[in-house]
Write a structure and sequence with these properties.
The chain is α/β, with parallel strands linked by helices. Helix content is about 40%, strand content about 15%. A hairpin with a 2-residue loop joins strand 10 and strand 11 (about 220). The protein binds pyridoxal-5'-phosphate.
């Protein structure tokens, strides 16, 4: 039995008719760049997140960049984030001319460890970006408390956490801004590139809408130096269709995670993900930790079971961030987990039989080590 890491086709087949109708409407109206379908999705996504505003942009990377620029982060500033995330979190900081300052993560949730933040704050610190890794939110209360005390902005990188919750509040709705990626493989994925920033701050929303559209609020009256970071009309229409299904897909992911949890109980070589008491985890990624991770991935691949690694190298050890001069040992929790993470197949349509097959092979491997 083949078990893919992700199966976008299975999900597409289940909504094929709705998607065709939605795309046809965009074609009929030739509303290709921005326009009414993006505006409609923005309204729906803000309501879903429980925020007043949502601005559609070209990608999750754009979302982070527009939020940082919108809040005035610029050259000479520092922004605190984590090293175990996708590079885009740090790239967006760098493209504002600011410096990413990393703090280590919590060994259970793999999210920003709030107890490490104070020591990383300097006079140059402007903002904190917690990343809701794998679909579980960071511990936001202590992060917000520090931010309020030190007058720092909080930008949530919720790219992996559509619909995740912290004490009943939705991802993206707690900080000054919440940034989402709708990359096709995400829990809410476009059929191309797309992203959004949600916020309750009207002024910030207005500024980001200008920044994403070459700094103009009125055509050709450019009052800011912006960028082209608009969302396509087709993506807006596709995302509106898919948003209606997201709650059911999230339940599918949570059901599958529970099956993995149960079947992997007692496999002492494997550490399964833990849902924090404050959290509703949406399992964008179901990452286990296993010593000898590369051998396990190779053994599973031989049996046609396909896994991922998120992420093999923490950001501070990448060539692109060599200039920060942060060597091995700087962030021990992030470094150790990067060596052991294996992302198991996870998507709503994954069957219990497929999960059983994955676990059967993991157990076979565990006995052999
Ligand atoms: C945590 C995180 N931040 C940012 C991004 C960037 O999103 P995009 O690929 O849509 O630019 C991603 C997407 O992979 C992500 O996982």
């Amino acid at each position: 039995m083949k078990v893919p890491y992700l199966d976008l086709k299975a999900q597409y087949e289940s909504i094929r008719g709705e998607i065709a109708d939605a795309i046809q409407q965009v074609l009929d109206k030739t509303a290709f760049a921005g326009g009414p379908f993006v505006a409609q999705f923005e309204k729906e996504f803000a309501a879903f997140c429980g925020t007043r505003f949502s601005a559609g942009v070209g990608s999750g990377t754009d979302a982070l960049w527009m939020a940082l620029l919108g809040l005035g982060v610029s050259a000479g500033d520092e922004v605190i984030t984590v090293p175990d995330t996708f590079i885009a979190t740090a790239e967006a900081i760098s493209w504002c001319g600011a410096k990413p300052v990393f703090v280590d993560v919590d060994p259970v949730t793999y999210n920003m460890d709030p107890s490490k933040i104070e020591a990383a704050i300097t006079r140059k610190t402007k903002a904190i970006i917690p990343v809701h890794l794998f679909g579980q939110m960071a511990d936001m209360d202590p992060i917000l408390e520090i931010a309020r005390k030190r007058k720092l902005f909080v930008i949530e990188d919720a790219s992996q956490a559509h619909g995740a919750e912290y004490k009943g509040k939705k991802a993206g709705s707690i900080g000054d801004a919440g940034c989402f990626s709708f990359y096709p493989g995400k829990n809410l994925g476009a059929y191309g590139e797309a992203g959004a920033v949600v916020t309750n701050n009207e002024e910030l929303d207005k500024k980001m809408r200008m920044l994403r559209d070459h700094g103009q609020a009125k055509k050709y009256y450019h009052s800011l130096i912006g960028w082209n970071a608009r969302m396509d009309g087709i993506q807006g229409a596709v995302l509106s269709v898919k948003l209606r299904h997201l709650p059911a897909w999230t339940e599918g992911r949570r059901r599958n995670a529970a099956v993995y949890d149960e079947l992997l109980k007692g496999v002492t070589e494997v550490t399964t993900p833990k849902e924090a008491a404050y959290a509703k985890h949406v399992y964008h990624i179901y990452a286990i930790r296993v010593p000898g991770r590369d051998r396990l991935i190779a053994a599973l691949a031989e049996k046609d079971i396909h896994c991922g690694i998120h992420y093999p190298i923490p950001l501070h050890l990448l060539d692109s961030y060599k200039s920060l001069n942060l060597g091995k040992g700087s962030f021990p929790v992030a470094e150790k987990s990067a060596e052991e993470f294996v992302s198991l197949p996870m998507f709503p349509e994954l069957s219990a039989d497929q999960i059983g097959r994955v676990v059967e092979e993991i157990k076979r491997f565990a006995i052999a080590i």
